[in-house]
Design brief:
The chain contains 1 helix and 14 strands. With 212 residues, the chain is mainly beta. A hairpin with a 6-residue loop joins strand 9 and strand 10 (143-154). The chain has a single domain, classed as Porin (Beta Barrel), CATH 2.40.160.
Length: 212
């Protein structure tokens, strides 16, 4: 059922993409980051290139985002997503795919090649919130909750505080919800720097990024 649903999602996306619309927008770009840290977890301790491609029509956004490590120790990821926005509310379905495991069309719950997440995001002024839940591919059915606050914004420079908590795959030796991400991120033009602390893993990161 999950496999059929994903195929239908991709076919629907292709139909939308090839529909000519004066209000449609295409977005493309890439980031170069000193390491790929996501929700408090470091994926491979490697410099990574992260390309992105999206197509937006009305409130619907269809996109691909990937991260490819430049070192053999790193992790590769290729994600397909659908987001529908109603004002400040966004509803997203994401297919996290890990190509090094091969078998791109294997949607088994046990293998973890594809992990499917449903998430809801909401912004209100300087505040933002996110709630995500893995409903397939993750045997722990992990949940992640995040709150953000923009503390500075002027011209093309900004800074935000982020606190995130997760359970299951986000934590080590503990099934309960734990804070796994406390961070401050700042950006100016194409440059960005993030300082991230993971209290549950007792580690921290300073990540540099450049956007093309």
């Amino acid at each position: 059922m999950i496999k059929k649903t994903t195929y239908l999602m991709m076919m629907f996306s292709l139909m939308i993409i090839f529909t000519v619309d004066a209000y449609a927008q295409i977005g493309l770009g890439a980031d170069l980051v000193s390491r790929y840290v996501w929700r408090g977890t470091d994926f491979g301790n490697s410099v990574s290139i992260q390309p992105a491609l999206s197509y937006t029509i009305g409130g619907l956004e269809i996109g691909e985002w990937a991260s490819y490590a430049l070192a053999d120790s790193g992790s590769n990821e290729n994600d397909f997503y659908l987001t529908y926005s109603i004002g400040d509310l966004g509803i997203t379905l994401t297919d996290y795919y890990y190509p090094e495991k091969m078998d791109a069309f294997n949607y088994s719950d046990e293998d973890g090649i594809h992990m499917l997440e449903a998430s809801v995001s909401y912004s209100m002024g300087s505040f933002s919130m996110l709630a995500g839940y893995f409903f397939s591919g993750d045997p722990d059915n992990s949940m992640y909750l995040e709150a953000g606050y923009e503390i500075y914004a002027k011209d093309d420079t900004g800074a935000s505080l982020i606190v995130g908590a997760g359970d299951g795959t986000y934590v080590e030796n503990d099934d309960k919800l734990n804070v796994v991400h406390i961070g401050i991120s700042a950006s100016s033009g194409s440059l960005s720097v993030s300082y991230i602390v993971n209290p549950q893993a007792e580690t921290n990161y300073l990540v540099f990024g450049y956007s093309f």
